[in-house]
Amino acid sequence: MILTIPENSGRKIKEISKVSEGSTAINAGGVRAVTYINVPITAGNNKVVFKTSVADFRSKSAGNERFIKDLENSATLKT
Predict the structure, then answer these.
(1) 3-state secondary structure of 27
(2) Tell me, what's the pLDDT at 26?
(3) For a disulfide at 41, which of 5, 16, 46, 65, Cβ 3.0-4.6 Å?
(4) N-to-C CA span, the chain
(5) DSSP string spanning 13-24?
(6) Which pTM was predicted?
(7) Helix or strand or coil: residue 5?
């Protein structure tokens, strides 16, 4: 995943401290409960990259598993 903000915003991304997913909605309580990454990913500019494997991502929660299955199913329907 790549997170960016406009270069001319006058702001910088300090870090990614939590990673979450959602197929319908992500609420504040769900974001606070996320424990996907153990150490913040530092940035310091207008772009930061979070890398993981699909297998690792899907293993972290039932929500992640559903999210990947939904993606797989939608891709299968389009082919």
Answers:
(1) coil
(2) 57
(3) 16
(4) 24
(5) EEEE------SS
(6) 0.52
(7) coil
* Burial letters 21-57, b for 16+ CB under 10 A, else e: beeeeeeeeeeeebeeeeeeeebeeeebeeeeeeeeb
**55-59: long-range contacts at Cβ-Cβ below 8 A with a sequence spacing of 24 or more?**
57/21
What single-letter amino acid sits at 65? E
Amino acid letter, 69: K
CA 44 to chain centre: 18
φ, ψ for residue 14 (rounded to 5)? -75, -50
d(CA 53, CA 13): 23
d(CA 20, CA 71): 16
pLDDT digits (tens, 9 = 90+) for 33-49: 555 677 888 888 999 88
